[in-house]
Amino acid sequence: MYKWTMSVLIGIACVFGITVLFMTTAQHQSQTKQEASAPALPDTPLNSQAAEAIYKQSCIACHGNDLEGKIGPNLQKIGGKYSDKQLYGIVQNGRGGMPAFKSTLKDEEIVNLAKWLAEKQ
What we know:
Blueprint: H1 2-37, H2 48-58, H3 60-63, H4 84-93, H5 107-118
Helix pairs in contact: 2-5, 4-5
Keywords: Electron transport, Heme, Iron, Membrane, Metal-binding, Transmembrane, Transmembrane helix, Transport
Organism: Paenibacillus konkukensis
Domain Cytochrome c: 46-121
């Protein structure tokens, strides 16, 4: 009985371990695909003051005074989830309920905002 129980427990542990491995691999591949499909990030240096001004002008209504989120999601640690390249694509093209800003902001403003947000980790 003991050997049978141990065999079952080892089998369950192996299945669990393999499942976690596949899920981690799939998540990494998905993130890599997102990174590859994000538009190229122009080489614009970060200007934090300008980025904050753009945020106050265009983003504060949905994302709050302190990036805490309102209608839109909390952005206080968004850089831990997305790269500057991914954030550039999201701001440029919009996503979900968020509008695209490529027609209302200059490209260098979007790049600057994306780099500024990417630092929020």
